[in-house]
Specification:
Structural class: alpha+beta
Number of helices: 17
Shape: globular
Number of strands: 8
Strand order of the largest sheet: 1-2-6-3
Distance between the termini: 85 Å
Helix content: 40-55%
């Protein structure tokens, strides 16, 4: 019914215009955002997303709307960038403009802008510079860390042998082994695989990475509503606080034992920087930054590499002919000697298989969210400062213009016709640009040395009657479904 009173009519029209503006974007006229699916009031485009694996829907939508499109999560507009060329254009060619992090409600509650993963501006730059420098100082990419990985891979082999070919779940053992490498750099210590402190840390970090899927997306989209359902946020915050409490207690001990001339680990180096910085009115080397930085590095150095290795062993069971070819190359090049990084150049097939495990495993399918640091002209669109951007890694690692059998596990993606290893420019599992993974070189060393050491010593088979499911678990990290395996000794 149309109001008869002119003032009521005008007010009604203004209200309608306000609602349209509110739900369909205040910035549409001021900025030239790319097209995208039409949003509904309040929920935006949530109704069309696969909420368990939203990256699949995002990838599919790019076929209709192009490599750069607008998606609306609730009332927030998000720019999704798909395909290698567009993602590279954003993260490499416009590196500064796309190097921000968006305001994400739960992440802000957890990290409060500290650390390296979700920090911004000068704080992030300072922490990243310090991290890269210190990782190099403590052996990343050198023989020293290679020796640590070699020793840890021997421990893992012995642990696998203890099962005597019977079925077991490899999750905690592999995660503990990988964790010990980053722990040696952060804390200069090693945990036994059954150490309750390590197992608790692994459990809490893994839980948070799984929680970071659908429920956290809803929490961040509707924080005021989701606070009525506190279990998800409470569990994430409780886990994060316990991890941080362990870290704070550790660096308290380090501070008491600190020798400026004998820095044992990353925490010691940070504490030295903290002393040097004290006269500076703008502090970066604070206790809060140290706590979150160590938590970020422990998380990043533990879950992604161990998950990739678990994908690798699952895929070797699924494709025994590929496993056999890797073992033949190991026998030919390494024999019974310990694997070394230098062997990788002589092992093109194994190198290709490891690359394909990373590509097919698609460990961080969404990528971590980015944000524009300023208004930016990008591919014909004017994007506003601060808008959230998803450079979709799934769309790069499964880009059919660069991977001919993108939906299959196919090591040939990284081999030429004569069997030599070839690089593929669209292989960016560590992301790209200024926000790429700081521990990429360390992860590459770990993947090669752990993988070759395990396949040198064992043939991996599924337990009788088991079904090998390649569907990933829902979460920030694309882990394989829980599975058991049999490690059959080769020697």
């Amino acid at each position: 019914m149309i109001p008869s009173d002119p003032i009521t009519l005008v007010l009604s029209i203004i209200l309608c215009l306000f609602l349209v503006r509110f739900f369909y974007g205040w910035k549409k006229n001021a900025y030239n955002l790319p097209p995208g699916p039409r949003p509904l009031p309040i929920i935006g485009n949530l109704h069309i997303l696969d909420m368990k694996r939203p990256y699949l829907t995002m990838h599919e939508l790019s076929k209709k709307y192009g490599p750069v499109y607008t998606l609306q999560l609730g009332v927030e507009k998000v720019i999704v960038i798909c395909g290698y060329e567009a993602v590279k254009d954003a993260l490499v060619n416009h590196a500064d403009e796309f190097s921000g992090r968006p305001k994400v409600v739960l992440i802000d509650e957890l990290a409060k802008g500290h650390g390296i993963l979700f920090a911004s501006l000068d704080n992030w730059r300072t922490m990243r510079r310090f991290t890269l420098s210190t990782l190099r100082d403590f052996g990343m990419g050198t023989e020293a860390i290679e020796n640590k990985i070699s020793e840890e891979s021997d421990n893992l082999v012995q642990k696998f042998r203890s099962y005597k070919g019977e079925p077991f779940d490899n999750n905690m053992n592999i995660t503990a082994a990988v964790s010990n490498i980053i722990v040696s750099i952060l804390l200069s210590k090693r945990f036994d695989y059954e150490d309750p402190t390590l197992l608790k840390l692994i459990k809490m970090i893994s839980e948070n990475n799984q929680l970071g899927g659908t429920l956290i997306m809803l929490y961040n989209t509707y924080p005021s509503v989701m606070r009525w359902f506190p279990n998800v946020a409470e569990k994430a915050l409780r886990n994060a606080n316990e991890v941080c409490a362990f870290i704070r207690e550790t660096f308290k001990i380090n501070r008491e034992q600190l020798d400026v001339n004998d820095q044992r680990n990353l925490i010691d180096s940070f504490l030295v920087k903290q002393r040097e910085e004290k006269p500076n009115p703008k502090l970066y080397f604070t206790n809060e930054n140290l706590t979150q930085l160590v938590a970020d590095l422990f998380d990043a150095g533990m879950d992604t590499t161990s998950t990739t290795l678990r994908w690798g062993l699952l895929l070797m069971m699924k494709y025994p002919e590929i496993q056999k070819k890797v073992q033949s190359e190991i026998d030919k090049v390494i024999g019974s000697n310990e694997p070394q990084v230098i062997h990788r150049k002589e092992m093109p097939y194994t190198d290709a298989v490891i690359h394909e495990i990373q590509r097919f495993g698609n460990i961080v399918p969404n990528n971590l969210p980015h944000a524009t640091t300023q208004d930016v002209n990008f591919r014909g669109y004017l994007l506003p400062k601060g808008i959230q951007v998803i450079p979709l890694l799934t769309s790069v690692l499964y880009d059919k213009d660069h991977f001919v059998k993108a939906d299959e596990f196919y090591p040939g993606h990284f081999l030429d016709s004569s069997g030599k290893f070839v690089r593929n420019e669209a292989f960016i599992p560590f992301s790209a640009g200024k926000r790429s993974c700081a521990g990429e070189n360390l992860a590459k060393m770990e993947l090669f040395m752990f993988f070759t050491r395990l396949l040198q010593n064992f043939t991996f088979k599924a337990p009788p009657g088991a079904t090998l499911d390649l569907t990933p678990v829902v979460g920030v990290i694309g882990s394989p479904m829980p599975y058991k395996m049999c490690a059959i000794p080769r020697v």
